[in-house]
């Protein structure tokens, strides 16, 4: 009775947290299973960025509670951001939960499960739900474990590395400071050691993660020669033998000082893909959002990055329908969005989050207006993306072979610009950087043929 399934909602940070929990549990003798129907313990790692994300997880947990009536020993837990946001109040809707664990207590999960299993094995009623959403100093240092490496084509070739947690930005629309706590950075030596160990296991690409990743170490390390601690970390990871690609997310525009922009010209392992959240193209709305930059400054950053790397790929986040957003505000967002020529974007309709300043602002925007503006930006994005992918047809792109695609028949990998590719390959090429000639393209996916030893195959 030690089979665990972890279902993850939300961002890459949540994926990394789930992976670390899985690794900790596996080290304690638990089996991590892919099928939720085969588990004895089911953990939902949740998201709170939008109310819809919370409702989706609550709906899933409500459905799973029915399983407990047929399987009394089944253990159900909610982890992560929604657990942190709602805490014991979740029991009003989900009274049969066994475990509610917040974002700073993931490392306590193995111990809590041991307590629940011991009570069950002894025939003692489990009793009250375990609820732990307290803050814990140093908790950012606990997300360091990775799943055991696999052999052959199943081995891990890319990895997320958590470097910083929490946020001090206080954007008016965002609940992350409540769910993730204050900004906290891991020691640089620990991060470098983790990346080095991953390289020794065959990982070729690392993605550095943080709520505001570009704020890494700003209170813990000195700026050396005009180089920020985050860029110092990039330099040290860049020097690791075996690591061939470096990415990071999610940054803040204010973190793109001259040293970070210049890094794209002098650190060849730093992939030419930037996720640069815009949120709005209206200075009036940016002020209301408490975003400390202007549309003019945002444009300068995009231009500076393209000046260093003309082929740079950009993705972004945009919120439409923020309280008080008028037609002229949206028009400014639309024009800047089109001008920046994004390759990918996450366009969100503003969602009220209780406990944030924006939730009580006047002039809430009607849902139908949000939807109309959302569709306008998505239409621009589709045009941009089709044009960019069509321009790649006939070119040869460097691709990291990650493994088989969902069909199991072909292989998949990503370009340095973070485009997903599908192609025929041999299992021995997993983990290799290979040249791929692009033959056709959809909005978001490239299809091609490998060029090995100068011969297409």
List the helices and strands and how they pair.
Elements lengths: L2 E6 L3 H16 L3 E2 L8 E6 L4 H20 L4 E5 H7 L12 E3 L7 H13 L8 E3 L25 E5 L1 E2 L10 H5 L3 E2 L2 H13 L4 E5 L19 H10 L6 E5 L8 H9 L6 E3 L7 H7 L5 H14 L4 E8 L6 H14 L3 E6 L17 H25 L4 E9 L6 E5 L4 E4 L9 E9 L3 E8 L2 E2 L1
Parallel strand pairs: 1-2, 1-3, 3-4, 4-5, 5-6, 7-10, 10-11, 12-13, 13-14, 17-19
Antiparallel strand pairs: 8-9, 15-16, 15-18, 16-17, 18-19, 19-20
Helix pairs in contact: 8-10, 11-12
Please give a structural write-up.
This protein has helices at 12-27, 51-70, 80-86, 109-121, 176-180, 188-200, 229-238, 258-266, 283-289, 295-308, 327-340, 367-391, and strands at 3-8, 31-32, 41-46, 75-79, 99-101, 130-132, 158-162, 164-165, 184-185, 205-209, 245-249, 273-275, 313-320, 344-349, 396-404, 411-415, 420-423, 433-441, 445-452, 455-456. It is α/β, with parallel strands linked by helices. It has three domains: 3-132, Methylthiotransferase, N-terminal domain (Rossmann fold, 3-Layer(aba) Sandwich), CATH 3.40.50; 139-391, tm_1862 like domain (pyruvate-formate lyase- activating enzyme, Alpha-Beta Horseshoe); 396-456, Beta Barrel (OB fold (Dihydrolipoamide Acetyltransferase, E2P)), CATH 2.40.50. The strands form five sheets. It has a six-stranded parallel sheet, sandwiched between helices. Strands 15-16-17-19-18 form a five-stranded mixed barrel. It has a three-stranded parallel sheet with strand order 7-10-11, sandwiched between helices. Strand 4, helix 3 (80-86) and strand 5 form a beta-alpha-beta unit. Helix 11 (327-340) packs parallel to helix 12 (367-391). The longest helix is centred in the C-terminal third of the chain and has 25 residues, at 367-391. The model has no long low-confidence stretch (mean pLDDT 93).
């Amino acid at each position: 009775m030690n089979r665990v399934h972890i279902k993850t909602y939300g961002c890459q940070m949540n994926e990394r947290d789930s992976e670390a929990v899985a690794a900790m549990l596996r080290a304690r003798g638990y089996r991590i299973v892919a099928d939720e129907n085969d588990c004895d313990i089911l953990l939902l790692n949740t998201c709170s960025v939008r109310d819809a994300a919370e409702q989706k997880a609550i709906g899933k947990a409500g459905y799973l509670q029915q399983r407990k009536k047929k399987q009394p020993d089944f253990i159900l837990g909610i982890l992560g951001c929604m657990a942190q946001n709602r805490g014991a109040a979740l029991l009003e809707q989900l009274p049969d939960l066994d475990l509610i664990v917040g974002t700073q207590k993931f490392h306590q999960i193995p111990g809590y499960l041991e307590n629940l299993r011991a009570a069950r094995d002894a025939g003692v009623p489990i009793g009250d739900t375990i609820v732990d959403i307290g803050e814990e100093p140093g908790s950012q240092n606990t997300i360091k474990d990775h799943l055991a490496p696999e052999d052959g084509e199943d081995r891990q070739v890319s990895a997320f590395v958590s470097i910083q947690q929490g946020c001090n930005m206080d954007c008016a629309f965002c609940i992350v400071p409540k769910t993730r706590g204050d900004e906290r950075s891991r020691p640089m030596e620990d991060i470098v050691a983790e990346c080095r160990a991953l390289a020794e296991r065959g990982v070729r690409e690392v993605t550095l993660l943080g709520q505001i990743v570009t704020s890494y170490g700003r209170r813990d390390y000195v700026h050396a020669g005009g180089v920020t601690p985050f860029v110092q970390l990039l330099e040290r990871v860049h020097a690791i033998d075996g690591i061939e690609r470096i990415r990071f997310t999610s940054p803040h525009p204010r973190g793109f000082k001259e040293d970070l922009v210049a890094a794209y010209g002098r650190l060849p392992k730093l992939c030419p893909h930037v996720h640069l959240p815009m949120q709005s193209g209206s200075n009036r709305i940016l002020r209301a959002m408490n975003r400390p930059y202007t549309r003019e400054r945002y444009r300068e950053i995009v231009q500076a990055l393209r000046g260093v790397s003309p082929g740079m790929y950009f993705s972004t986040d945009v919120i439409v329908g923020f309280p008080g957003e008028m037609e002229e505000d949206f028009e400014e967002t639309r024009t800047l969005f089109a001008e920046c020529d994004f390759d990918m974007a996450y366009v969100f309709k503003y969602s009220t989050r209780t406990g944030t300043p924006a939730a009580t602002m006047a002039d809430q925007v009607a849902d139908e207006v949000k939807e109309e503006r959302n569709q306008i930006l998505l239409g621009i994005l589709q045009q941009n993306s089709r044009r960019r992918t069509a321009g790649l047809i006939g070119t040869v792109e460097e691709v990291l072979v990650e493994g088989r695609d969902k069909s199991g028949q072909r292989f998949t990998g990503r370009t340095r610009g973070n485009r997903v590719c599908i192609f025929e390959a041999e299992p021995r090429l997993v983990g290799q950087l290979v040249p791929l000639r692009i033959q056709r393209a959809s909005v978001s996916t490239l299809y091609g043929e490998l060029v090995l030893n100068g011969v297409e195959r």
